[in-house]
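Journal club side-thread
Mid-discussion, someone asked how the predicted structure for our own chain would compare to the paper's figures. Pasting it here so we can look after the session.
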Amino acid sequence: MRSIWKWVGLAGVAGVVAGGVLVARDQRRRNSYTPEDIRARLHQRLAESERQDRG
């Protein structure tokens, strides 16, 4: 019975580590944008949403 809890604990630790890796990767990707890139993307999304509202 004790061995089962050991495996459950290891699986939990592996899940936390994998989640941390995904968060770090996403944060790194978000930080790679310059303010000009973000502004251009926001303007593009606004133009697309205005087009969808019209037609």
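Post-session note: The chain has a mean pLDDT of 91.
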